[in-house]
Amino acid sequence: MNNKSVVRLLSLILLFVALIMVLPLFLSLHYGEKDALRSFLWTISLMCGTSVLGLIATSWGNREIKIGPKESYLIVTLAWVLFSAFGALPFYFSEVLPSYADCFFETMSGFTTTGATALDNIEAVDKSLLFWRNMTNWLGGMGVVVLFVAVLPAFGVKGTALVGAESVGPTKDKLTPHIRHTAMALWLIYLSLSVLETVLLLFCGLDLYHAVTVTFGTMGAAGFTPTNLSIASFNSPLVEWVCIIFMFLSGANFALYFRLLKKQIRKVAKDGELRLYSLIVLTASLFVALNLMVQAGMKGGEAIRHSLFQVISFTTTTGFSSTQYQNWPICSQMILFILSFIGGCAGSAGGGPKVIRIAVIFKLGGTSIRKRLHPNAVTRIKIGGDSLSSDTVSSIAGFIGLYLVTFAVGCFLISLTGKDLITVCSSCILTLGNIGIGLGGIGMDFSFSIYPDWAMWIFSFLMLVGRLELFTVFALFTRDFWRS
User: Fold this and answer.
1) Which of 72, 129, 79, 128 shows the shortest CA–CA distance to 106?
2) What residues does 89 pair with on adjacent strands?
């Protein structure tokens, strides 16, 4: 393990995040929020001081940063912990939450694009702090380390291993010969879509502050808003339709947008995961809309809009809410709960296991049945016409197994809080799946403030392993990882 390279690179990334925090600092000046201004100044000073100490401590000898698979796993995991640990300080110094555990949870929820909150009255918090809270959503959506690799090549870091450790999905798309150019391309697409949504929300009547913060939550597939009732606070069907479109876009593989720009339309149209993702959304929305019209007496247009909104919100793990979905018929709520076990596409901003993994598991089950009937048959698992290697299929099966075990252990630990079964299970799947909203005692009107501090640390861990897709974090707890 090259400890010197780990410390040096973490110091550089932490300094990079400190520079990003200057933007909400300026907002606190603009809005005259003295407590927030003081909190940001203290936090930025601590981050810069820690970074400088790390750089000084590693300045001796050869300064070249060398990282392999082990170093990349450690760097990415510790980087996300550091983001959250320091990013929580503005909330802690401003005393907007009662404990540091709550502040850490809130920030981890932001960076991991979960969108779960411990705040009971969001609108009472300073605007600059809420802007930082939503900005963590946007940064986490495409990945802070990926952004670092894209814009800071001058440090001589070969970011292939880092991007691989932070990126989501069982397969990684290398769109250009150099990983830095791939990272830059993805972030430019992400930024362009964000600007487009912001402009559309401005046309829908939102002011610039709310348009930007809602965009942060939408494009990051995260769900934070600066309002108490999420998107329902705006009471605007137009805003909801814009969010529906961009939630869907953020849940798709961003590599497909790159291919669209390269005019590879046929290749995009044949993408098996995109087709299945679209089919899941449309089918689930249709069932929910019909259920709302029949059992809840909702009008057709309203039922379609709300069903599309909540289905996409749960499927992409965005976590926005446009209405009191907890009052919907049980059938509709059950569909939403099932969708929370799917997630967006690989290479998207969405969390969850991912559509491609769910598809492979079903195909693997079908293949196992055929093998029992025809033991000598040669079978291959294909997604959209592309065959998956046996290593990829094995990795996906291992991921799903580990995901379910992690969920079960999380539920057992959180059950010690004494909450009801639906609330416990919903809380664990929404943190592990980075969804943000759930059912039972954790829904549109309820926050995680109902839980004690020790439970908040467990939820923070679930969010971390869910965002980094289990293997990156759990590898650190194996004996093989620490062997030289």
Assistant:
1) 129
2) none
Q: Which of 318, 169, 309, 190 is nearest to 251 (CA)?
A: 318
Report d(CA 232, CA 312) in Å as an integer: 15
Cα(358)–Cα(336) distance, rounded to whole angstroms? 16
To the question of pTM greater than 0.70 for the whole model, the response is yes
Contacts of 264 (CB under 8 A, 6+ apart): none
Q: Could you give the CA distance from residue 157 to residue 180 in angstroms, rounded to a whole number?
A: 10
- Pick the closest to residue 457 from 83, 148, 99 (CA basis): 99
Instruction: Centre a 10 Å sphere on the Cβ of residue 137 and count the other Cβ atoms it contains.
Output: 31
- CA nearest neighbour of 433 among 348, 323, 347, 316: 316
pLDDT in tens, 395-428: 888 888 999 999 999 999 999 999 888 889 888 9
Taking the C-alpha atoms of residue 25 and residue 30, their distance in angstroms, rounded to an integer, is: 9
Token readout for 445 is: 């009107």
- Percent share of the chain, pLDDT over 70: 88
Q: What 3-state DSSP class applies to 382?
A: strand
| Beta-bridge mates of residue 382 | 387
pLDDT in tens, 252-282: 988 888 888 888 888 888 888 899 999 999 9
- Tell me if 230 sits within 8 A of 320, measured CB to CB: yes
Residue for token pair 């009937």: 373
